[in-house]
Amino acid sequence: MKEKLVVIGNGMSGLRTIEDLLEINKDKYEITIYGEEPHVNYNRIMLSYILSCEKTFEDTIINHQSWYEQNNITLNKGDKVISIDKNNKTIKSQSGKIESYDKLLIATGSKAFIPKTKGSQLENVIAFRTKADVDAIISTIRKDKTAVVVGGGLLGLEAAYGIAMHGIKTILVHRSGSILSQQLDSTGGRLLQKNLESYGIEFKLNTTIDEINGDGIVENVSFTDGVSVESNLVVFATGIVPNTQIAKEAELYTNKGIIVDDFLKTNDDFIFAIGECVEHKGNTYGLVAPLYEQAKVLAKVLANKKTDGYDGSTLSTRLKISGVDLFSAGDYLGDVTTEDLILLDEKVGIYKKLVIYDNKIIGIVLYGDTADASWYLKLLKEHTDISDLRTKILFGKSALSGDSGHGGNDINAMSDDEEVCGCNGVCKGDIVKAIKEQDLKSLSDVKSCTKAGASCGSCLGLVEQILVNTLGDEYNACEEGICSCTTLGHKDIKKAVDDGEFETVYDVFKSLEWNTQDGCSKCRPAINYYLLVKYNDDKYKNDKRSALVNDRMYANIQKDGTYSVVPRIWGGLTSPQELKDIANIAVKYDVPTVKFTGGQRLDMLGVKKEQLAPMWKDLNDAGFVSGQAYAKGLRTVKTCVGNTWCRFGTQDSMGMGVIIEKLTWGSWTPHKFKIAVSGCPRNCAEATIKDLGIIGVDSGWEISIAGNGGIKVRVTDFLCKVETDEELLTYVKAFMQFYREDAHYLERTAHWVERTGLQYVKDVMLDKQKVAYYALRFEISQKSAQVDPWAKAIEDGFTKEFNSIVINPEDSHSFEAKEQI
């Protein structure tokens, strides 16, 4: 008969213990889990990506409901355990359930620490700890209000970054003189702060909140430096406190946390504890890596397998902010007995510091270049004597082998015992062994089998390198499924669509043996796009059900449920009459906000759904068409004034921008597509961070591709130079069509070129026959594409669904009949 194991907490450490236990012995226990949150197990350290909208909650789920069911685990979501009866070996939940156990695992984690500040009880004072916190922050932020984040540690920086990514003015307050002071020294903190300021975050250091004011809700925040700001949101990220209440009430030994021995056992032989709620040898841990190390040990203990026990962890940290490379470990500050080896290039943004004691590394700070983080960490953990390495060690592992600048990041240079995934303690050798023995073919396979890359995700690039290096060409042929509906990836699906004949997305699902009849929100838009690419609009009816909400509504939905309407402004060039028409329409519909966009257009924000159709008609009547600011297609052609007005201009960038936009508007592409035309190399239109950048020079035009000005900036790659306007337009058409046909759905040009390689694109785009072929295909597709979606929607009667539903009570079946006379 199976023993009964009850787990209090459905978080990362408790569930990792269960995962490891099932791998050792899946038949030993009948497992029941109680979770306070109404969710399955999700990756809490990815909350910052949800806040910044770089990931969805679905992306962060570790164990779906199907996993619990497949492993015969009973999950009680949203049901907090409120008491433990040690004598009778039972627990009681908030819903009144009483559950007996043979062994009990407490994994209650921690709770956010909110200091007792005047006004901290007001509404919109929020912690940053759970999905509910993230949801509350997203629903509260307003672009006309300032958000205040308290705490310059990991959580505080990630919260401030996530909020700032919504275009919200964000002030981060930190009582220390340097941010991330628990993980970085002052130099590293200064470089990091400079980087984060570029995202729009304002820092107030050596300061904290004095008072939060408001009538029941946050309205104003005063700081200890005497400054105050109007604000509607205060986020406290000032640390965590082990959640020990239930253990204390059960009279288990506690101090800062629940006290456990090397085998994660409490003072009760049948009760264990793990994670942020525990204290081991006087230490508590708030990072995921040590918690997973504890889980490995505890799984063996519960399975009655021999283990040496848990002996504490060496902490290392990575910051989960896109475009920020940061790593620290060990004693990064040192003292009078230590020495520092430092490499600093502030202009490039690179800082490396190794703290040395007795010729051994005891602390590491890496900013801007973290390629050798795992190697330095290995030297630290193994107490390696670096006496003979001192003169070159800061230049990385490759410098020691004499190949500096040639393969410093080569995966072959890593030894098998070097750590790849710090969160889960997975070394290169573990991954290689699993790939070979378990026949792993994809990143998803490796994540599932080894856990490498399954937590914060910062090592996924390295994991993929190991996959490619181990599998060779075989890896390229094996792609992850685009969603749970299929095991096929974009490459296989595109080929099947190209080779077959299909009338609807459902035909594709049926032919490729989809797991679901109707697909899902991930695969339906992709299949719809691939069919559009193959047949063009005149041969395939665009399936509106398969479009994303913005594409269905021909407008961008906003956080309050209203919409953004953006008419097309050709090449950013307008006229007094057009401005007057837009102004009159904005006044007519009482538009609350009108904003100039970065793409040289006017954005009318706050338009109600029922106003869309009449507003579109008025704009059409004034000569405007949709700016398609919502579309997976051409957005804008940004221009400078060029040689028409500028004394430095070499070409007519305004005129060319208008021509290009009128040539390419209405086109649909895998993702949004932006073009810019600058009249001279001074590049005032910022052409070098667009999908297609064009710069005028004395002898013609320079064309560059695959730029991105988003969260992670990518500068364009030079493609070629042309002498005539006619040549330029041919290349514009050919590049757009090649991208449309070759890239995966939702793959920006930057990611497409990085995946396929610049040379792959050049091999096509520098071949005159291929350029002519793709240019002609673009022209054919545009014949049916250049139809204004606003006018077409009104003509087709599609906008009737925008009208409010009003039913005459007399005609309603639910209406109570009048009394018969």
Multimeric state of these chains?
single chain
Rg, nearest Å: 30 Å
Continuous helix count:
27
Would you tell me the overall average pLDDT?
Answer: 86
Class inferred from helices and paired strands: alpha/beta
Strand content: 15-25%
Main beta sheet: 7 strands, mixed
List the uncertain runs.
401-409, 804-821
Count of distinct strands: 37
Helix content: 25-40%
Distance between the termini: 74 Å
What overall geometry do the principal axes of the alpha carbons give? globular
Describe the structure.
The protein is an alpha/beta fold and about 800 residues long. It has 27 helices and 37 strands. The strands form ten sheets. Strands 11, 12, 13, 14, 15, 16 and 17 form a seven-stranded mixed β-sheet that branches. Strands 5-2-1-9-20 form a five-stranded parallel β-sheet, with no helix packed on it. The protein is globular, with a radius of gyration of 30 Å.
Brief synopsis:
This protein is an alpha/beta fold. The protein has 27 helices and 37 strands.
Question: What is the secondary structure topology, with strand pairs?
Answer:
Elements: E1 3-8, H1 12-24, E2 29-34, E3 41-42, H2 47-51, H3 57-60, E4 61-63, H4 65-70, E5 74-76, E6 81-85, E7 90-93, E8 98-100, E9 103-106, E10 110-112, E11 125-127, H5 131-140, E12 146-150, H6 154-164, E13 170-174, H7 186-197, E14 201-205, E15 209-213, E16 220-223, E17 228-236, E18 240-242, H8 245-249, E19 258-260, E20 271-273, E21 278-280, H9 288-302, E22 316-318, E23 326-330, E24 339-345, E25 350-357, E26 360-367, H10 373-381, H11 397-400, E27 419-421, E28 426-427, H12 428-438, H13 443-450, H14 460-471, H15 473-476, H16 490-499, H17 505-511, H18 523-535, H19 549-553, E29 556-557, E30 563-565, H20 576-588, E31 593-596, E32 602-607, H21 612-621, E33 634-639, H22 653-664, E34 673-678, E35 692-697, E36 700-705, E37 717-722, H23 725-742, H24 749-756, H25 758-765, H26 768-785, H27 789-796
Parallel strand pairs: 1-2, 1-9, 2-5, 9-20, 11-17, 12-13, 12-17, 13-14, 19-21, 33-34, 34-35
Antiparallel strand pairs: 3-4, 6-7, 7-8, 10-18, 15-16, 16-17, 22-23, 23-26, 24-25, 25-26, 27-28, 29-30, 30-32, 31-32, 35-36, 36-37
Helix pairs in contact: 1-9, 12-14, 16-18, 21-27, 22-23, 23-26
